[in-house]
Amino acid sequence: MTYFQQGNFTATVFILVGFPGMDAAQFWLAFPLCFLFLVAILGNCTIIYIIKVERSLHEPMYLFLCMLAAIDMLISLSTMPKMMAIFWFKSTSIAFDACLVQMFCIHSLSGMESTILLAMAFDRYIAICYPLSHTSILTMPRIAKIGLMAVIRGAALMAPLPIFIKRLPFCRSNILSHSYCLHQDVMKFACADIKVNIIYGLIVIIFAIGVDSLLISLSYVFILKAALSLTQEARLKALGTCISHICAVFLFYVPFIGLSMVHRFSKTHGSNIHIIMANVHLLVPPVLNPLVYGVKTKQIRHRIARAFNRMMH
């Protein structure tokens, strides 16, 4: 296989890695990875199914949760199967165009997830600060428009990333640092000026992920201010509805921001910290989000228990 066309120095394939220095253990690491993949798919499918069939859950918070579960499931499908192929079958190569497609899927889905998390924060803000207006503000058509906006925003913001990579010549190493294609990883192997890639990447992080996280934080400032004016029982009940969302926010933003900072400021490219942060960012939220919401949401928990009891009998 020719990895680079020597005439125009254009990459034809990239090599993905698992965990450097752990070649012998990677075959066995694929088993827990497969288990996590099954948990992510089963958990998010369960969340979507329960919200669909349980009419009492046709409320803004749960409809946004359904969107979040669908995005998490797509993230798992775009990353985990290739990772298992790397660990089990040593299928480390990925075609250049396939790498760009995977890159677009990962980044655009992450952008969509950020938008949905912001929408969920807005829902909690309206529900706690303006409870009498909640149903009139977040109507079904508006919820559908927010979901559509999340898709368009994520796709539009991230579409330039593979286009910017496509125009670059590659004449250096084609061995990437992760088990999947990330823009900030691929661009470092170009043998041309990547200022446009760096600047646009920073714009996306600051004006999309940064703004979303700032607005989420601001919404919780108003939520806490409103909750403090309630009785202790009402305060605990109101804040209790936010716990699952707060967990989802931390599961998404902390690894995402950490990975971005490590890629931009760490001098050790391809180090274990890069790999750990990247895997946590993409593998942990799809697995833990349905578990967190399943445990903390009484309606979902009871519906799962009823379905399990029917299966047992």
UniProtKB/TrEMBL annotation:
It is a multi-pass membrane protein. One of its GO terms (biological process) is cellular response to lipid. Residues 43-293 form the G-protein coupled receptors family 1 profile domain. GO terms for cellular component: plasma membrane. It comes from Eublepharis macularius (Leopard gecko). This is Olfactory receptor. One of its GO terms (molecular function) is olfactory receptor activity. It is found in: Cell membrane; Membrane. InterPro entries: GPCR_Rhodpsn, GPCR_Rhodpsn_7TM, Olfact_rcpt, OR51/52/56-like. The lineage of its organism: Eukaryota, Metazoa, Chordata, Craniata, Vertebrata. The chain crosses the membrane at residues 27-50, 62-80, 100-122, 143-165, 198-224, 236-261, 273-293. Belongs to the G-protein coupled receptor 1 family. Keywords: Cell membrane, G-protein coupled receptor, Membrane, Olfaction, Receptor, Sensory transduction, Transducer, Transmembrane, Transmembrane helix.
